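Incident review: delayed structure delivery

Summary: a single-chain prediction request sat in the queue longer than the usual turnaround. Root cause was a stuck worker, restarted by the on-call engineer. No data loss occurred. The affected request and its eventual output are reproduced below so the record is complete for anyone auditing the incident later.

Affected input:
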Amino acid sequence: MRVHILICCFVAVLIKQRVDGLEVCDVLQVIDSVEWNLVKLVKSVNATLSKYRNCKCDEDAVLQNEWKLAFRGTSGTRQSVYYSYKDGLGIPSSIESGCKQVGKPLACSSHYRNDLILDNWNGISEVALALYKNDVRVHHVIFDAAGSTYMNWLDKARVKSSSWSDLPTSVANIFSIAGHQDASLRRTFFLNKSYGTCPNDFGWFVAIDNENGGCSWEKNAAFPLYKYATGSTALNWNDGNIGRADYFAVLVKYYNTP
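Output delivered after worker restart:
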């Protein structure tokens, strides 16, 4: 139908402009050519749309485009990332736009808490914990969120997949948002494999929420400090290959998300 409308418009233009020397058969030939090319164009567009409708996007695209940002913890703010997540403590009333997104080189000097999601934890099918360095995602873990709360989804038994190859099948001694906290320790969002006194502690990720913890590997000049195993498996927290993330994000996916 649209092709025919375009052809009619083309003929109307020819008549209006009274093209001299153009016989009826010539006009028909032009119409046939236009119709053929328009049909080819429509087929090409439909094929392209079909391709994207049926595509199976890679995991990186999914984490960036189909998930909603529930929380972003920024390093070095001197505000507790644990209590900012749990209660919104220390979250400023005015948030920079860069704090409300991930993967973009925009300024952010605070944590960001999406109260609408965290205070209304319903209909969420999956949660992703993603770590970023220089605005590039360096590691992630995806959790099954069925029947969870905003405080207990980070559980070893809920792990569905991870960029750390050993994490889904390894035994972990501490694996939770609260992590390991006492008079001197503030190891939160703690994905830890094993303790062996300070020189032999192994894990994947930790958000260190104070400056003077019990071990040398967690002492820092400006909390929170986000340390992670840069390779594909857990590392000794004292290893030289332990990295420092600039921020981490908690992203959620709802059951009705395509």
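Verification: Residues 67-254 form one domain.
Action items: add queue-age alerting; document worker restart procedure.
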